[in-house]
Amino acid sequence: MKIAVRLLLGLGGLLLVIWLWGVFFPGPEKIIRKRLRELEALVSFPANQPPLANLTAVQQICARVTPDVEIRVDVRGVGRGQLQGRDHLREALLGFRSTVNGAKVELLDVGVRLAPDKQSAEVSLTAKARTPRDPDTQFQELKIIMRHQGGHWLVAQVETVKTLR
Fold first, then answer.
1. Residue 153 · residue 121 · CB < 8 Å
2. Could you give the CA distance from residue 70 to residue 164 in angstroms, rounded to a whole number?
């Protein structure tokens, strides 16, 4: 009986250590998913948000991308566009926020594939977006390349994925 209790306590302690290890030392995939949730919250914004709040959110978004970030989009009904660099992204986001009065963005079906060196990752996901001016919810598949730089996972490239329609 004493041996069974000791084994159960030992197993419980081992499970606790494993759980704590995962909490305090998460793997790259968990960190990437957390970073994407942060970006999801920053890209979404309520209607009539004050300009200072918009500027703060845009600065926080830009802090989560590489200085040479490259964004290539081809969205049905909107057109094609390409941005390169943090400064161009900042300008585009501020322009978007000044012309669109609120947006709700959700990132769905997130799949993370780490490179063998664990210093970069390819993320595939579906972005769900809604703005007050457009009554229809828009869905767009995206491929995102993230790099581990300076101790953080940063977005290096965003590209729309063409889907069959």
1. yes
2. 24
Per DSSP, the three-state class of 147 is strand
Q: Strand pairing of 79-84 and 65-75?
A: antiparallel
- DSSP, res 20: H
Contacts of 92 (CB under 8 A, 6+ apart): 83
Both tokens assigned to 2: 């004493």
> Which structure tokens are listed for 165?
């329609």
- Domain over 27-160 is classified CATH 3.40.50.1100: no
Cα–Cα distance between 84 and 102 in angstroms, integer? 24
Placement of tokens 């926020």 in the chain: 97
How distant, in Å, are the alpha carbons of 76, 108, 139, 162 from that of 165?
Answer: 11, 19, 12, 9
Return the DSSP state at 45: B
Number of residues that this document lists for the chain? 165
At 44-68, the pLDDT tens digits run 999 889 999 999 999 999 999 999 9
Q: What is the pTM of this model?
A: 0.83
Partners of 45 in beta bridges: 103
